[in-house]
Amino acid sequence: MSRKAMLALPLLAGIMLSGCATLPSSGPTAGQIVKRAEDRQSEFQFDIVPLDSTAVDALNSAQKARSAATMSLALLEAPAGMDILGPGDVLNISIYEVGVSLFARTGPSRGDGFDPSAHSERFPQVVVNNEGMIALPYVGTLQVQGLTPGQVEAQINRKLGGLSQRPQTIVTIAQNLSNTVIMAGNVRKPGRYDLTFNRERLLDVIALAGGAGASSEDTLVRFERDGRIIEQRLDAIPASSRDDLVLRPKDHIELVQRPRSFTVFGATGKVSQVSFDTGSVSLAEALARVQGPLDSMADPTAVFVFRYDDSITPGSGAKPVIYRLNLMQPASYFLAQRVSMQDKDVIYIANASANQPSKLVGIINQLFSPLITAQALTKN
């Protein structure tokens, strides 16, 4: 190597050392994060909380409190009513009479004019109109919306009381559009489903519809009843529980695919967004899914979880909190198993402070190795 090149080396090294902070990096070091948290003049404030046993207990207690306070489908619980009539329903109506009949053709009677035999007449199917009414001969117009078939029978019998001898009416539902529920969204067979006297529950109808199009952990049930809407994850609804509601007419059920995920950045083997896929994921499992801290780059004492939380100061509202885990302490691996990840958490594994000088040396080697190689070849 020439004398000029040798003299230029210290100058180039000094220039590169002065720009060390601008070297390529996957994120800040632990010291930079701590320094930023201590800067109370900055517009965006956050706290750093070590993940020790006290912090983990606070996190778990807060999580249980939030779960207990979450609105569940049980709040929409109401008595079932599968035989309530409404517009569009199709009815079968039969009237039975004794003696002289208004509707049925009667045969010869006894000498006193009384025919003791019973006669019946079945009307053509009757459709409840848009106003919830039906019309029958000699009976007139009846408001049947909101009534049961038995109540309609009683109304018809009263109307015919002065016109027929001991009328008895039977009303059955031939086609029931009122006693149905709507299943929509991310379900394999969306549509309208009839309710029966078997008292179908929410999970029953979801099964009839072919089940959810995604896993139960990634599926949200949006349930609407009487103008109220409550959402709850499908995997949190045990069969035959209060949340597994007995369905009522006009209930509207929508299944929404909403995967939960966490994101990982920094000195890790895999920078990515990771889906939970299961009911719950611990911090230890989350780190394992992304191959953990990278030995050649990471600072194992600085694994950070970024989260909007109110666990440390309950009642103050969610605020930015960074939880720090030190993997150089054996107890941290037990603590990591007790910390549950939350949807949209961010894990950041800090770069080791020694990475920058190492990168600088690597860059210098890349720059000058061709010169050294060329010098060696010229000598040969």
Overall description:
Helix content is 27%, strand content 26%. By secondary structure, it is an alpha+beta fold. The protein folds into three domains: 28-65 and 261-354, Outer membrane lipoprotein wza domain like (Outer membrane lipoprotein wza fold like), CATH 3.10.560; 70-80 and 179-257, Roll (Outer membrane lipoprotein wza fold like), CATH 3.10.560.10; 90-175, 2-Layer Sandwich (wza like fold), CATH 3.30.1950. It has a six-stranded mixed β-sheet with strand order 1-16-15-17-13-14, sandwiched between helices. Strands 9-8-12-10-11 form a five-stranded mixed β-sheet, covered by helices on one side. Residues 356-364 have low confidence and may be disordered.
Secondary structure topology:
Elements: H1 3-18, H2 30-38, E1 47-50, H3 53-69, E2 90-98, E3 118-122, E4 126-127, E5 133-136, E6 140-143, H4 149-160, E7 168-175, E8 180-185, E9 191-194, H5 202-208, E10 219-225, E11 228-233, E12 252-257, E13 261-266, E14 272-275, H6 283-289, E15 298-309, E16 319-325, H7 331-338, E17 346-351, H8 355-379
Parallel strand pairs: 1-16, 8-12, 13-17
Antiparallel strand pairs: 2-3, 2-4, 2-7, 5-6, 8-9, 10-11, 10-12, 13-14, 15-16, 15-17
Quick overview:
This protein is of the alpha+beta class. The chain has 3 domains: 28-65 and 261-354, Outer membrane lipoprotein wza fold like; 70-80 and 179-257, Outer membrane lipoprotein wza domain like (Outer membrane lipoprotein wza fold like); 90-175, wza like fold. It has helices at 3-18, 30-38, 53-69, 149-160, 202-208, 283-289, 331-338, 355-379; strands spanning 47-50, 90-98, 118-122, 126-127, 133-136, 140-143, 168-175, 180-185, 191-194, 219-225, 228-233, 252-257, 261-266, 272-275, 298-309, 319-325, 346-351.
